[in-house]
Write a structure and sequence with these properties.
Rossmann fold, alpha/beta, 415 residues, Beta-Lactamase, 13 strands, 33% helix, six-stranded antiparallel β-sheet
């Protein structure tokens, strides 16, 4: 079990605000009807529904840490996520594994007091109405992505910790192909993988590289903004859905009129966004986007499922003519207890273009296996390299492989 940090609780800081909805309302506790201030004994009537409760500011129970303290604790220990909930012991994710802490269970008042550390009154009331809330906030040591939701036991919250320092391509140990792909002047680059695979970190490193090395106008459209970039050699403008724009597709269409060189789309969720991204790529812009797919070939198939059978031939042509590269990424635990990234990388060569048009996915996979010169690699090859370097075990390689039989043959020198 993890141990709480051995230092006294800091005084409660001024609550970080969500910039889009900070309308200057006071965060001070409201007075009781008799004009006095609420006391430690003030409680919230949990028998009412969330939407019916009066906006009374609850306070933490004795012995409970502040939310900032929990975030600081997790950050100092290198944890990636914090899981909090009513009647639950706080848990933190340590290199992919859920770790139980020794903090006490969170009661309702404590949990709601944590919400008021990072949400305005308006935001709390919106959560009570909608029972869902997405957002982000920032401390002086880390940026935090927040998701709040209701459960059978009561409200719960997951916080993803994002370092303020943007790691570079070198810091992440990414291969040279990440630079050559980022040097493209136009086309579509897709960075894909499951939740928690490090897509955002990798894409931030690629944007950081362009920002430092090229004189371009970069526009990012994110939900929420995770890594905050500062203009360097490039001019960079970041827009958050729900704050600076209402919809991904709206912002993406508007970006085409804003003299962009590189447009980053946080997630390509629907066909409208895909259509606009492809149009941008076809009209001389570089577009980066993400999808929740596990391989390069599955990414192409996933995009095609957004379209009817009659539309798919035209979409194959559009993808083949627009694509620069697909980088699918996963994370696995290493022998020293850390984590390493492995990749499935497809570079859109002339031969690959023809195969995409003809739906020859087996041939594409074979090209990836033999395409090291172009920077291509399959998931199995990437995992096998980590194994050869002694960074992962045979069991990990087999567990993460999409085709374990093939991986077993590679491990035994038969492939």
């Amino acid at each position: 079990m993890t141990q709480p940090i051995g230092k006294p609780l800091p005084p409660p800081p001024p609550p970080p605000q969500f910039a889009r909805r900070n309308n200057g309302n006071s965060n001070q506790p409201q007075s009781n009807p008799d004009g006095t201030q609420p006391t430690e004994q003030t409680t919230v009537n949990t028998s009412k529904t969330l939407a019916q409760e009066a906006p009374l500011r609850p306070k933490r129970s004795s012995g409970q840490p502040s939310l900032k303290f929990l975030v600081e604790h997790a950050f100092e220990l290198g944890y990636s996520d914090i899981h909090l909930g009513v009647e639950e012991i706080p848990r933190m994710r340590d290199r992919g594994e859920m770790a139980l802490t020794e903090y006490p269970k969170s009661d309702y008042n404590t949990f709601m007091s944590w919400l008021y550390e990072v949400l305005t009154e308006e935001e709390v009331q919106r959560f009570k109405r909608e029972l869902e809330f997405d957002g982000a906030t920032q401390y002086d040591f880390a940026r935090v992505r927040i998701n709040i939701f209701d459960t059978l036991r009561g409200p719960a919250m997951v916080m993803r910790l994002i370092p303020l320092k943007i790691l570079t391509i070198d810091d992440l140990g990414l291969p040279p192909v990440f630079r050559s792909v980022s040097d493209a002047h136009k086309g579509l680059i897709l960075v894909t993988g499951p939740t928690g695979s490090g897509k955002s970190t990798t894409m931030a490193a690629m944007v950081d590289y362009v920002n430092k090395e090229h004189a371009k106008h970069i526009i990012t459209i994110e939900d929420p903004i995770e890594f905050v970039h500062k203009s360097q050699k490039s001019l960079i403008k970041q827009r958050e859905v729900g704050i600076n724009t209402l919809k991904f597709d709206n912002a993406l269409k508007a970006a085409l009129r804003e003299d962009p060189d590189l447009i980053l789309v946080g997630e390509m969720r629907d066909r409208e966004t895909v259509n606009t991204a492809l149009k941008a790529a076809q009209t001389g812009h570089l577009v980066m986007g993400t999808l929740h797919t596990n391989s390069a070939i599955k990414t192409i198939e996933r995009i095609l499922t957004l379209y009817s059978a009659e539309e798919q031939d035209a979409m194959r042509v559009a993808i083949s003519e627009s694509l620069v590269a697909i980088i699918s990424q996963g994370l696995c635990r290493t022998t020293d207890g850390k984590r390493a990234a492995y990749h499935d990388i497809l570079i859109n060569t002339e031969t690959v273009k023809d195969y995409i048009k003809q739906s020859k996915y087996d041939e594409i996979h074979a090209l990836m296996q033999d395409g090291e010169f172009d920077g291509m690699v399959t998931t199995n090859q990437s995992l096998f390299r980590l194994y050869e370097e002694g960074r992962i075990t045979e069991e990990t390689a087999l567990e993460r492989s999409p085709t374990p039989n093939e991986m077993a043959m590679m491990l035994r020198g038969r492939f």
